[in-house]
Amino acid sequence: MSLLPSDPAAGRITQESGSHVCLPEHCFHAFDSLYCALITRRPSRLRGCIGSFEALSLWDGIPEYALISAFKDSRFRKIDKSELESLECCVSLLTDFEDASSYLDWTVGVHGIHITFPHPSLLPSNSTSEAPSPLSSSPYLPRFTSRQTFSATYLPDVIPEQGWDKIEAVDSAISKAGWSGRITEDLRRSIKLRRYQSKMCTVDWDEYVHWRESQS
């Protein structure tokens, strides 16, 4: 590659001055451009995500659910050995579980939500309000069996990533739980919601290899 001065007559490059014109950084920049042209990094995408709300020993629970997420998450094909070097591993430890006073009693960006609600056919029909209410009707629900309940959860980081407000998050969780009918205010108020927080850590393959080598 040639570098022509703006004024060739006045811009003669001597050996001394030339040593300060073409630098190793120029070669690095050329390599960088070549690398970017030849290597396209794929955007991050989920390859498995399964957890448990049971209290588990971290020593046993983390490896168990790492393998379950990798090989038994029915939403994804099993992770293959060839993918290892491109993987990131994220562990979320769920903490600070609290029963919310209503389906609105939690904070976006702080809490995850775990909802349970009965089949809407069991709901009392004495209310026609469609306005969001901070009051929960769950204490007045009829008795129901586990086969007549729905449940779903969203981790704390999911809701702000999706840009949802509280009602949008709750409505999405209702659909995620398997209810495909109309979502009414009575249905929202029937929800028993537990809020929780999480402590999360993510490492990539290179960090894992470095750690393994340091343990040798």
Largest sheet: 4 strands, antiparallel
Indicate the proportion of strand residues: 15-25%
From the spread of the alpha carbons, the general shape counts as elongated
Distance from first to last alpha carbon: 46 Å
What is the oligomer described by this structure? single chain
For the CA atoms, what is the radius of gyration?
A: 28 Å
Structural class: alpha+beta
Question: How much is the average pLDDT?
Answer: 78
The level of helicity is 25-40%
* Number of β-strand runs: 4
SSE succession: HHHEEEHHHEH
Strand order of the largest sheet: 1-4-2-3
Question: Can you count the helices?
Answer: 7
Low-confidence stretches: 1-18, 136-147
Sum up the structure in keywords.
single chain, 216 residues, alpha+beta, four-stranded antiparallel sheet, 7 helices, 4 strands, disordered N terminus
Explain how this protein is built.
This protein has helices spanning 15-18, 24-38, 58-71, 158-162, 166-176, 185-189, 205-215; strands spanning 88-99, 112-118, 149-154, 192-204. It is an alpha+beta fold and 216 residues long. It has a four-stranded antiparallel beta sheet with strand order 1-4-2-3. It starts with 14 loop residues before the first helix and ends with a helix.
Secondary structure layout plus pairing:
Elements: H1 15-18, H2 24-38, H3 58-71, E1 88-99, E2 112-118, E3 149-154, H4 158-162, H5 166-176, H6 185-189, E4 192-204, H7 205-215
Antiparallel strand pairs: 1-4, 2-3, 2-4
